[in-house]
Structures
1.
Amino acid sequence: MDHFVPPFPERPTRRLPLPELLRRARRSFLEVWQDGHFEQDVIPTKVLAQRLLICNSPDSVQQAFIDQHEALERKSPQMRHALEPLLGDGLFISDGLVWKERRRVVTPVTHQSRLHLLAPVMTAIAAERHAAWAALPTGTTLDVLAAMGHLTAEVICGALFGRRIGAAGAATVVDAFRRYQARVGNIDLPSLAGLPDWFPRLRRGVSPEVRRIHAVVDQLVAGALAGGESSLIGAMAAAALPGSGQRMDANAFRNEAATLFMAGHETTANLLAWACYLLSQAPAAEERLAAEARSVLGGRAAGWDDLARLPFTRAVVDETLRLYPPVPLLARQAQAPVTIAGHAVARGTLVVVVPWLLHRHRRLWDRPDHFIPERFLPGAAERPRHAYVPFSLGPRVCTGMGFGLAEAVIVLATLLQDFRLRLAPEARVFPICRLTLRPGESLPMVLERRG
Ligand code: HEM
């Protein structure tokens, strides 16, 4: 098998001076890690007034996100302030009673027991994209990052809202969120400087993008609600909150719908784009995936019942999530003093799990920077629990994990059994992390039909 090392930022061998650290963090969170961090278990540090504890071993990760969940439930000020204009108090960034109540209403929407009912939407949209690609002349250059964004937006709309978003709506959301991420700022200077939460944050140029996304979401919500409880979103609107027994008010509902819509398509789109890139550089893996898909599907689109028979496709998805986790940094702000891996953590400290570091830890993984899908095949060597956390872990684990995994396998197997994507000569692929980890602003690839 042709194992290769896909790109990652240079790793400084010494501690960076503060201005350089901030400059790099502003550009991309992936650029701040020193070489030594990839073999440390716990990294206590301080940036300006902000203390941080980076948990980088399976044990410390478990202590932080499972054992000490209650003290560490709250997201970092950076994440809350970055997403608040878009998601309000939506599940991704809420905490306390709001989070507890809403989590119980949102979790069932994409619960494992329901996925077989949602998979036909994934199959239909994948088949539609297959037909669209089949109609293109071979040699057409596509922006695979945008294409996957459109596809996953269509899937989440079909599954949750029971409607089409359409090419124009999908293009608006994908473009607006790309601009939003570029403008929202990677670091929250006020909290690093020790200023409180209420201190006003500057978010230049963000409002127009929020308005564009909200306009699309509001239209989807209105359409779904007009259909009563027939859509999953309609059923969520009618569900009683566990504490009060009341329904969510209109604002809360819109925030949760926006959260599901954004969390439900952006991450999966990045995963699919990265998988296409990785396969384009690893011909043997690409051939093996195509052969598996062809033998199971014989040209038709993949469905729920096929998932168990596509282990190599699933291994490619898992390995892509290891190398390029769409959410590569999970940060919490301690609300009470705790001890983690022998370190006393004061209230206000940021406790951070960094899948980017943990997934490439030199003592946890063999050839950690190589693309080796076989490591995830059934029967491969066991790895420590909690060394692999692309969906987070503990009570705040991603509610859409099964949905995203099923969608990724269905889409890749359906498309790549008949098409090959080659990296376009002008493509410059490099991981960049703002809110999510992407292969750049676009991913130009050339479409070829398989013989
Ligand atoms: C490959 C696809 C996906 C990846 C890698 C992913 C990753 C994650 C991660 C890492 C978190 C936790 C963030 C943190 O702890 O700070 C999260 C939370 C969440 N995800 Fe996903 N996600 C994916 C797909 C989805 C889908 C398809 C949905 C919905 C249909 C979804 C809905 C959510 C929600 C609602 C939360 C907030 C949960 C909470 O805080 O209680 N995600 N996701």
2.
Amino acid sequence: MDDPTIATYDRIAVEFARRNFDLTNGRYLDAFARAVTGNAPAERFRILDAGCGPGRDSKWFRERGFQVIGVDLSAGMLAEARRRVPEVEFRQADLRHLDFPDGHFDGVWCCASLLHLPRHDVPAVLASFRRLLDHGYLFIAVKAGQGEEIEERTYGPGSPRHFTYFTRHELELYVERAGFEVRELWEGEPTPTARHGWLNLLAQTALRQPLLGAVAVVFDDKGRVLLSERADGRGWNLPAGFVDALEGPDETVVRETREETGLDVEVERLVGIYTRPYRYKGTDWRLITHAFLCRATGGALAPTKEALQHGWFSPDGLPSPMSSRHHVAILNDAVQGRCGQLTLPVMRRIERGR
Ligand SMILES: C[S@@+](CC[C@H](N)C(=O)[O-])C[C@H]1O[C@@H](n2cnc3c(N)ncnc32)[C@H](O)[C@@H]1O
């Protein structure tokens, strides 16, 4: 094993277990277990004990009925865990390369192990914990402080372990950036023999909602559709935008059409709801778009900061390039709706392409 920290744990596993197996972590385990289960039976919930060491906390979860899997990189620690807690499944794995399916767990318990990773690995490991939980809870215990160091005091010379220390603020930021909301943070003061206190954090997966958008399909009295050439160079599109926090999508199309084109419109009817994958600010989302057939009521077309120019186009002669396949599908449905071939609003899922 190349990692000196893991080599140390392999060597000190028996002594570590002797010193730590009977310590009690009850207050935090209770709070975590309560959060995970609500009032439901523990048997329904799967816990990952991430960096489980000799399995003390895995045992606690198992005794209370949880399904639990312990992972650790140290073969020595796993041998102790298997001997002491044979009823639990333990796997050898690096926290940096966990290969469980997405959403496999309801809780990730990470006690005194994240602190052994180099700081630059921490965001990716927390992001992988987030992927392993659809909706669930994360517990982390790390040592409070600043910087990183190789420590050889606790188990003596020749027993180096890498430690990364965290301030309270740093830990909260890492966890929030990985897609969690902090629920509790208990700070333990350093004891006379320990230089570092502990930060014990309970977090819940933050709700990730899809993006909401709205699109206006506006025809003139010759049956031509209003399109705008985007100022960002991505081609032509229907007036469209994201729904604001205090808006309904029917209000969004009116606002967006005015902002983008200068035209005032009113909504005539819903054409349909369209969903598609969408990349926004470096993250994958699903975009849910409400498309409305709208009628112009006033205003005048003018270039804006979002659009270089506007035009009325026959649906058979669209300008090129169109910015998205999605808008072409919406336009086709609106054309069919206009000539009575489509009477109800449609619901379309678009899987690939722009
Ligand atoms: C201080 S012990 C804590 C063990 C246990 N969670 C407890 O609270 O008693 C740290 C554990 O993290 C494990 N560990 C360190 N780096 C790891 C990594 N990259 N992947 C998996 N486990 C790791 C070590 O092998 C060790 O068992």
